[in-house]
């Protein structure tokens, strides 16, 4: 009975019902797309860590961002390899440099030197060029998504990086940094030449532990042997790198403000729709009260209307969010919407819709049932 009255009341004025649904759909889509863009953007801040294949990252004490390393002596790696529980450890170099462009200008790049023959630190997958691209003389790997910045380099093309000869020997896809500087992957020893850096120093040690080894204990053992380093599990360093940008820029605040604004708009639209429906049928609510409906039944009726609007709007909004993600997500503007975000947005908007039913209830509560009986 209650649901029947709620549905009939909503369907009697389909224009207002549509306005309410649009508000809910807009809120759900905005929360998911904003959240997906935020997650996709921040995942770039830890991309090298997430794709490194390492269990533990070792760097200079106080390391706070994977893209801004403070270099450490390369010879320390022997101490790391001797720690019980360490299966393998490889050095990784990260330097800022410049690549020469065909028009005579230069583009800032981030040179990443990885050990040839090891999977540690190999954050890319070659999609164009030979699989052993780094074994070629002066070989470097660039990303297809950076073609516009690098003036469409082709496989085999000769460029200069840091004043040294470089050959484009392979291309990856979707390996983009949080900064505007493209990643350039190359051989570990060659990275020093491209940045004119000290060959006795390196940026990180990437560690893979033996099966069953406790990573926290291995980290503690590494730090006990090397006082000036920080050793943390890979996921912890990924979170540290993301937190660096979250706390030192206003990016979290700006995304959060936009999301809250969308929720506010949705709340206002749903509340306004329900309120307008109540005003149009205030005599009907007075009749319900005159024939004995209690305050609790009136509240349940309004709650049922909000539930119908919320469930239909949330369902459409989630489907629309999924379609937008599938069509518009790209490596440069990734939209990453995990299942947890879908569920959180649905629960949040549903609660807001129920809260929005409070406004029309305040109006119904003041209705005098005697006005109906008196004609």
TrEMBL record:
Keywords, comma-separated and alphabetical: Cell membrane, Membrane, Transmembrane, Transmembrane helix, Transport
A GO cellular component annotation in the UniProt record: plasma membrane
Positions of transmembrane segments: 17-41, 251-278, 298-320, 341-362
InterPro entries: ABC-4/HrtB_transporter (IPR051125), ABC3_permease_C (IPR003838), MacB_PCD (IPR025857)
Signal peptide positions on this chain: none
One Pfam short name: MacB_PCD
Membrane topology, from the record: Multi-pass membrane protein
Domain of life, per lineage: Bacteria
Residues covered by the ABC3 transporter permease C-terminal domain: 258-369
Residue span(s) of domain MacB-like periplasmic core: 21-224
Compartments, record wording: Cell membrane
PANTHER family named among the record's database cross-references: ABC TRANSPORTER, MEMBRANE PROTEIN, HEMIN TRANSPORT SYSTEM PERMEASE PROTEIN HRTB-RELATED
The protein's name: FtsX-like permease family protein
Organism annotation: Novipirellula artificiosorum
